[in-house]
Specification:
Elements (H helix, E strand, L loop, with lengths): L8 H11 L6 H4 L14 H5 L5 H11 L6 H19 L2 H16 L2 H11 L6 H13 L4 H14 L4 H11 L5 H12 L12 H7 L1 H4 L44 E5 L18 E6 L1 H7 L4 H22 L3 E5 L3 H11 L4 E5 L5 H4 L1 H10 L3 E5 L2 H8 L5 H17 L1
Parallel strand pairs: 1-2, 1-4, 2-3, 4-5
Helix pairs in contact: 5-11, 5-19, 5-20, 9-11, 10-11, 16-18
The structure holds flavin-adenine dinucleotide (FAD).
Length: 412
């Protein structure tokens, strides 16, 4: 069962071109979960790694349709940016989630941890939910509706900590995203919109995904509509808001020896503010140690990271006309410093990593490069800058600003 989406830019463009004629039908079709998931784009990993840019999707969609005709599609595409912006403004939500995962794994009673493992392995006894867990571990993908049902089942039926469910998704989803994943789990738990939880209902699965139930009706009494009751999940630490970190959205020319650092938050440097730099070398640094030991990512997820980085490096090498290297090391900060020293770099340029694993290593990287007298210049796409600045409150005020902005930029 392999239905997951593209992992190179060429494949992503091909999939997107095939999906583009169907965006108008998306609003009515998207909630229906079919076996091969043809109702949705399956572009989330490509979008998450920025093999395909939201800007390209939005522009090409609006070249064919008026905004009201495709509003639902554009809203969903913009949800990811909304979550990204929300987390940029509240990075401690990510840090705290990671700390809680470690703490819970150390301190929960053995029988709870055994249940965590059983439910994640698809052995809860509720057969349709178990089919979803297996689909996730086998394919690295779940439809949005199935993610909602399964997360709700974990929290409100199994009554397990949301943090460990989010960790299970983060380890297996090929599109795993620090913002969309953490904040969607918080939303299902009732933390993101206080007082609003998402409850799984058997009637909803019967309506939107009968194939999960076709041979899988065992245990469905536990998710019957009248049975599921919301667990009152509480914040363990108050959410703190900060100002949006400021980064340049363009670069001035330099004669310094510059290196381009590519990382999985944005793998299309040939489009946007980095397109006209003249690097002497390009590197991507991947640490199997960090991803495996700290995040315990599935082997499928590790393979996908290597695939997208190779694709990004190959395209960058062609575009910028210089060699590129994939540095595989235990200590990624050391790996980047060693590459910079080897190529006698005076400056490293990169897209500013967003809150998540790469962002977490920035303080150490900045410090180490400072000791070597090498500048680290980080830039952000202007469209991210705009979108993130709209994400200070809920999605609907965000969308009002975003859709106005999209209409104005089109008119301009
Ligand atoms: C518990 C839970 C965990 C999730 N974890 C992730 C995650 O780790 N990474 C991730 O990208 N999405 C996550 N989502 C959001 C959503 O489920 C996926 O983006 C979507 O299912 C991806 O499939 P698609 O590309 O076929 O989506 P489509 O329906 O084709 O949507 C197109 C694009 O819009 C964006 N998008 C659509 N729906 C959402 C949404 N609800 N939130 C944010 N962006 C959205 C994605 O970039 C997606 O590729 C999660 C949702 C839930 C309920």
């Amino acid at each position: 069962m392999h239905t997951f989406g593209p992992m190179t830019r060429a494949d992503a463009l091909e999939s997107w071109n095939a999906f583009l004629p169907r965006v108008q039908a998306y609003a009515n079709a998207r909630n229906h979960v079919e076996v091969a998931h043809h109702n949705v784009s399956r572009l989330s990993a490509a979008i998450g790694f920025r093999l395909l840019l939201e800007d390209e999707i939005i522009e090409q969609t609006l070249a064919l349709h008026s905004l009201p005709a495709v509003e639902k599609w554009l809203q969903e595409v913009c949800w990811r940016r909304y979550w990204k912006g929300w987390l940029e403004l509240r990075p401690s939500v990510w840090t705290h989630w990671r700390q809680r995962v470690t703490l819970l794994r150390r301190t929960l009673p053995a029988e709870t941890l055994t249940r965590v493992e059983a439910v994640a392995a698809g052995e809860s006894g509720v057969a349709c939910m178990d089919a979803m867990a297996r689909e996730l571990t086998e394919t690295g993908y779940l439809h949005n509706h199935a993610r909602m049902w399964w997360a709700s089942f974990w929290i409100h039926v199994e009554r397990l900590p949301w943090e460990l469910g989010a960790d299970f998704f983060f380890r297996h989803l090929l599109d795993a995203d620090p913002a969309s994943n953490t904040l969607s789990w918080r939303w299902v738990a009732g933390l993101q919109t206080p007082g609003k939880t998402y409850l799984v209902r058997l009637s909803n699965i019967e309506k939107y995904a009968p194939h999960y139930l076709a041979d899988n009706t065992a245990g469905t009494d536990r998710i019957a509509d009248s049975v599921v009751m919301a667990v009152a999940v509480e914040e363990t630490v108050a959410v703190q808001k900060q100002a949006l970190p400021i980064y340049a959205t363009s670069l001035s020319e330099t004669k310094d020896r510059t290196g381009l650092w590519l990382h999985p938050d944005d793998l299309t440097p040939e489009l946007g503010p980095l397109a006209s730099i003249a690097p002497v070398s390009i590197a991507a640094c991947i640490s199997d140690h960090v991803y495996h030991e700290i995040y315990n990512l599935s082997s499928q997820r590790m393979v996908s990271l290597h695939t997208v980085l190779s694709d990004g490096l190959a395209r960058a090498s062609t575009h910028f006309g210089c060699t590129s290297v994939s540095v595989t090391v235990n200590n990624p900060v050391q790996g980047i410093c060693d590459w910079a020293v080897e190529h006698e770099l005076e400056e490293i340029v990169a897209f500013a990593p967003l809150v998540g694993p790469i962002h977490d290593m920035l303080p150490r990287l900045t410090q180490q490069l400072g000791l070597l007298c090498i500048r680290l210049t980080l830039v952000r796409r202007e469209s991210d800058d705009n979108a993130f600045s709209f994400a200070s409150a809920g999605f609907f005020p965000f969308w009002q600003k975003m859709s106005r902005h999209l209409s104005q930029s089109r008119l301009a």
